[in-house]
C-alpha cells in the first residue's frame, strides 16, 4: 500500500527526531525515559529508525525450541496471563509473554485480528529484542531489567509509532530475568494516560507470576512472604528449610538482604536477619500464619505471611490451583499489625566515629558484621542493635549506601569502567553494583554518569 505524503512526513520527521537525540541532543519532555535506549539502538545496534521491515515471526519449529526451556513457567503463568487479558481485551490489547531474548512464547489476543497482529509482530513467535527492533516495551525492559512503558512516538522505529506497549520483568528464583509480560495495543488514538493504567496492571501480574513460580519451586519448604516498606515497592520471598535456614530468596530479598547463591549454599539462618521466633515453625496451621517479624538488632518489624511446606501432591492435581502456590504478597494487611515502638540509645559518638572511619578505609574490601562489631568491642547481636538505633538503618544497608555514594563520586570524577568501579567500592561485579544503584537511585550507573557530563 502506498503511503500518503502526510504519513511519509510523519515517518521522516520521527526518524530525524530519533537521530538527533541519539547523537546527543537534549531529549524533549516525554522522551527522556527512553533516550538511552534510542542511543543504544542507533549506536550499539546500528538500527535505522526509518526501516519499514516487519518484525520477525518465528517458525513453529523455532518457536518450539524457545518454548521448551520455559514450559513450566508458561504453565504456571497461564492463570495470571488469562486474568490480565480479561481486563485489557475490551480496549483492544494483546498480551505477550516473552522469554529473556524477546520472543513471544505465549499470546492472548482476538483471533479475528490475527492477521493484523501478525503484521505488527504482536503475535506468538514475534521477536521483540531491543537489538532487533530498537526501543520497545519488551526489548527495553529486558535490557534495563525494569518495568517499561513505550507509547507511540517513544518507539525507536518509525514503523511502530502507532503502537503502545508496557513490559514488566519476571525474575526467577535466582534473581535473574527470565521473562517479560507485555500488553500492547495498535491504536493511534490511545492516550498516554490511558495506556499508563495498563502498565500498573502488567507489573502487578508479573509480580504474581514471579511469586507463583517461586512458591512452586520451593513448595517443599516453608515460605515467608515479607511485606514491602510502607513507602511501596515489592515484597520479599524467602524459602526456609526445617532448620530455619534460608535456601531461596527472590530478587527483592537478595537485593535488600545482600544475599547471593554462595551465601545461600553456605546456609544463612533466618534468625541472623530477624529476631528468633521459633514458635512460628512449630505451628500446625494449614492456612497462612500472619506474623510480624522483628529485624535483628533493631526495633523495626515487617508484616509477614508464613506458609507451611506443601503436602505431597497427587499426580493428577493442578499446581496452579494449589493454595501453596497462589500469590499473596499483595494481600498482607499492614494496618492490622501495629508498628513496634522505637527505642532510644545507640553507639557512643566515639564508637560510631571508629566504625565510620573503618568503613571509609576498607570500603573496597569484604566487610562483615563481625568485623564491624570487633572494631568497637561488642558482640555481633548487641552491635547490630546499637548501630541501628544510632544510624536508623542496619549495618548492611549502611554499607550499601556508602558503597553507592563512593561509586557516584567515581562515576563523575574518573573514567574507570563500571567493572573497575564495582570492584573498587566492594561489590562482587558490575551487575551487583548496577542492581543496588538502580534500587537506591532509580537509575543505572551508566545513565547517572552520562547525566553528570
How would you explain this protein's 3D organization?
By secondary structure, this protein is α+β, with helices and mostly antiparallel strands. The protein folds into three domains: 5-205, Beta-Lactamase, CATH 3.30.450.40; 216-336; 349-451, Orthogonal Bundle (Arc Repressor Mutant, subunit A), CATH 1.10.10.60. The chain is 42% helix and 14% strand. The protein is built from 17 helices and eleven strands. The protein has helices spanning 5-22, 32-44, 60-67, 71-88, 114-120, 130-133, 139-144, 192-217, 251-257, 261-266, 349-362, 369-375, 380-391, 395-413, 418-424, 430-441, 445-451; strands spanning 94-99, 104-108, 148-151, 163-171, 177-186, 222-226, 236-240, 245-249, 268-269, 289-294, 301-307. Strands 9-8-7-6-11-10 form a six-stranded antiparallel beta sheet. β10 (289-294) and β11 form a beta hairpin. α1 crosses α2, α4 packs antiparallel against α8 and α15 crosses α16. The longest helix has 26 residues, at 192-217.
Amino acid at each position: 500500500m502506498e503511503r500518503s505524503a502526510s504519513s511519509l512526513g510523519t515517518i521522516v520527521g520521527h526518524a530525524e527526531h530519533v537521530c538527533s537525540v541519539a547523537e546527543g541532543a537534549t531529549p524533549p519532555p516525554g522522551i527522556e525515559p527512553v533516550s538511552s535506549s534510542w542511543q543504544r539502538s542507533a549506536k550499539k545496534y546500528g538500527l535505522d529508525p526509518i526501516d519499514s521491515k516487519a518484525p520477525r515471526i518465528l517458525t513453529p519449529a523455532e518457536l518450539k525450541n524457545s518454548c521448551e526451556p520455559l514450559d513450566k513457567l508458561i504453565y504456571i503463568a497461564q492463570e495470571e496471563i488469562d486474568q490480565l487479558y480479561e481486563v485489557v481485551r475490551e480496549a483492544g490489547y494483546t498480551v505477550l509473554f516473552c522469554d529473556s531474548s524477546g520472543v513471544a512464547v505465549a499470546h492472548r489476543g482476538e483471533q479475528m485480528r490475527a492477521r493484523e497482529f501478525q503484521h505488527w509482530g504482536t503475535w506468538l513467535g514475534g521477536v521483540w529484542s531491543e537489538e532487533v527492533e530498537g526501543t520497545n516495551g519488551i526489548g527495553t525492559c529486558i535490557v534495563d531489567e525494569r518495568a517499561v512503558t513505550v507509547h507511540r512516538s517513544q518507539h525507536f522505529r518509525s514503523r511502530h509509532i502507532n503502537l503502545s506497549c508496557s513490559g514488566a520483568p519476571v525474575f526467577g528464583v535466582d534473581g535473574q530475568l527470565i521473562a517479560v509480560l507485555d500488553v500492547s495495543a495498535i491504536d493511534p488514538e490511545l492516550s498516554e494516560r490511558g495506556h499508563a493504567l495498563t502498565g500498573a496492571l502488567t507489573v502487578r501480574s508479573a509480580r504474581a507470576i514471579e511469586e507463583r513460580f517461586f512458591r512452586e519451586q520451593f513448595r517443599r519448604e516453608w515460605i515467608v512472604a515479607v511485606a514491602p516498606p510502607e513507602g511501596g515497592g515489592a515484597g520479599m520471598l524467602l524459602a526456609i528449610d526445617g532448620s530455619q535456614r534460608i535456601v531461596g530468596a527472590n530478587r527483592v530479598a537478595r537485593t535488600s538482604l545482600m544475599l547471593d547463591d554462595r551465601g545461600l549454599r553456605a546456609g544463612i539462618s533466618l534468625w541472623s536477619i530477624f529476631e528468633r521466633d521459633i514458635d512460628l515453625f512449630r505451628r500446625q496451621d494449614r492456612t497462612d500464619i500472619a506474623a510480624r517479624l522483628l529485624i535483628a538488632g533493631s526495633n523495626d518489624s515487617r508484616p509477614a505471611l508464613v506458609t507451611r511446606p506443601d503436602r505431597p501432591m497427587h499426580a493428577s492435581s493442578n499446581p496452579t490451583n494449589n493454595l501453596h502456590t497462589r500469590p499473596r504478597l499483595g494481600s498482607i494487611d499492614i494496618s492490622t499489625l501495629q508498628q513496634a515502638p522505637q527505642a532510644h540509645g545507640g553507639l557512643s559518638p566515639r564508637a560510631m566515629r571508629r566504625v565510620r572511619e573503618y568503613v571509609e578505609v576498607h570500603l573496597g574490601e569484604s566487610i562483615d558484621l563481625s568485623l564491624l562489631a570487633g572494631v568497637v568491642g561488642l558482640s555481633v547481636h548487641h552491635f547490630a542493635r546499637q548501630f541501628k538505633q544510632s544510624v536508623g538503618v542496619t549495618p548492611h544497608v549502611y554499607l550499601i549506601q556508602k558503597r553507592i555514594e563512593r561509586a557516584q563520586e567515581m562515576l563523575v570524577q574518573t573514567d574507570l569502567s563500571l567493572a573497575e568501579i564495582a570492584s573498587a567500592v566492594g561489590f562482587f561485579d558490575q551487575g551487583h553494583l548496577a542492581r543496588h544503584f538502580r534500587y537506591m537511585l532509580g537509575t543505572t550507573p551508566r545513565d547517572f554518569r552520562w547525566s553528570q557530563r
